[in-house]
Amino acid sequence: GLEQRLATVVGRAPVLRTATPPPLLARAADRAWALAEPVTPAQVHPTAPLHPWGLAVGLSLLVLGLSSQVLPVGPDQLFGILMGASVAETRLADAGGEVGDERVVVGDIVLRYVFPGYTGAEPVEVRNSDGTIHAPPGTRVEISARTERVFDMAALQVDDLAPVDARLVSGRDVYAALDVDQAGVWRFVFFQGDGAFMSADFSIEVEDDTAPVVALERSPPARVPVDGRVPLSWSAQDDFGIQRVVLEVVRPDGTVEEHVLRTPLDPERGLQGGLSMTPRDLGMKPGQSAKLRIVAYDNDVMGGNKRGVSPEVEVQAEGRAGQ
Questions:
Q1: Distance from C-alpha of 307 to C-alpha of 285, rounded to nearest angstrom
Q2: Helix (H) or strand (E) holding 203
Q3: Whole-prediction pTM
Q4: What's the Cα-to-Cα distance from 79 to each of 28, 54, 60, 72, 84, rounded to whole Å?
Q5: Angle at the Cα of 88 (from 85 to 92), degrees rounded to 5?
Q6: Degrees (nearest 5) of the Cα angle 193, 195, 196?
Q7: Beta strand pairing call for 173-179 and 184-192
Q8: Angle, CA of 86, 90 and 94, to the nearest 5°
Q9: Max Cα distance, the chain (Å)
Q10: In whole angstroms, how far apart are CA 294 and each of 188, 228, 305, 310?
Q11: CA–CA separation, 90 and 158 (whole Å)
Q12: pLDDT digits (tens, 9 = 90+) for 101-126
């Protein structure tokens, strides 16, 4: 029949393309063509559209079939993976959540820190690490390590969250990554056959981006001419960058007015400057007083801009300069 002849011809197509194919194979090809030529496309593939549910079922079966050839799980475990679970999570659930008592020894730990963009810090790689992570929130930590024995799969787990599939090379070299959010622990989960095994726990220590430190390098006298420059200078330092620096004027009634001093285009870790304003520029009249303080805001977009405040100084405006 046509089916058998097609199987013979297609399976040996490279031979047919030679200059002198075997006579029997050539005769089979000719016969297959004679039988196939009258068949219309509609007889092979109906022109009527498939029902949506039929198409969905067909695609699902195809995905299940292909996935079972790629993933280290059986067909009965694929549904959870298709619903969003990781392969490691599925295999751990199949093990009843139980892991071997023996901890897997890992070594050659390398941590590569990719800091949040706002810090302006370049990535840092720490080799021969003890596994402890020190980083500000929002840092991406890429981890690589080597196990003492061979496994068929690996995952990374943070605290008691679901494990996330890791990359395992040659059964021993494992690669994974995590995003620092809060203090906790991380560990590797390894799989071999039906068994699950864990490494020791490693600490995640969050280093919060602290507020800027602001100091007065020079404080003005208690009395300043109303049209004389207030002789005040300041400095500000921050872990990663200062977004802006302002002068706050605190009135006797408690109201606060803000005067912008610096807004660098690119956040800088250290800034300094002085005032060029007079008491009159600050809205003061002769005889009036106000408290002045310098406030610096950092560029922390993860935890919110923090403010560092200098000590306050009280200034009283006197009559016109020279009077």
A1: 29
A2: strand 202-206
A3: 0.59
A4: 45, 18, 10, 14, 9
A5: 100
A6: 120
A7: unpaired
A8: 165
A9: 123
A10: 48, 19, 16, 5
A11: 17
A12: 788 999 999 999 999 888 888 899 99
